[in-house]
Amino acid sequence: MPKKCGHTPYKRCIPTEDMVEKIQVACEARDDENFLVIARTDARAGEGVATALKRLEAYDAAGADILFFEAPQSEDEMRQACAAFDKPMMANMADGGITPVLRAARLAEIGYAFAIYPSMTSLVAASAMEAALLKLKNEGLSQSSGIPMFDFMEFCRLIGFQDVWDFEKRGARQA
Questions:
Q1: What pTM was computed for the model?
Q2: Are residue 41 and residue 72 in the same domain, yes or no?
Q3: Mean pLDDT (10-residue bins), the chain, 175 residues
Q4: Cα within 13 Å of Cα(55), Cβ side
Q5: Boundaries of domain holding 36
């Protein structure tokens, strides 16, 4: 506690037995075939690859549907983890993190079933916001040809304002 990103320092892992119990409870609570249990270990950073793989083995035996070896530090480690299990493996392509960020085709070749890209949109958005705010600070204007910006009305439609406007047209009193 608190939950930490697998690509940041000072992570601690709960005992394997506790995690196994959590996985078993999640599997028992499942009431839909589309509910998949993803079992993650952050043990690589503090305890090494061998311990992380032993944990995943226990999670596999506990009934996890998908295994998540968080923060491998090389493509070799990624291959080793994928080769060790006959279950779908999830890759975390955290831009700027510890794990090499690879193309989707390469991840599939290594043995991953799918990948997540959890930091991409936040990092891109933060960079664009910083650039726009610096332009505003330095030039005193919000619009710049060098910074892409949504058309205001398109953005309103994108976030669902059209539905609100349509509702208001149907129910609003005419002034």
A1: 0.79
A2: yes
A3: 66 88 96 94 92 97 97 96 97 93 97 95 93 92 83 92 89 70
A4: 24
A5: 16-118
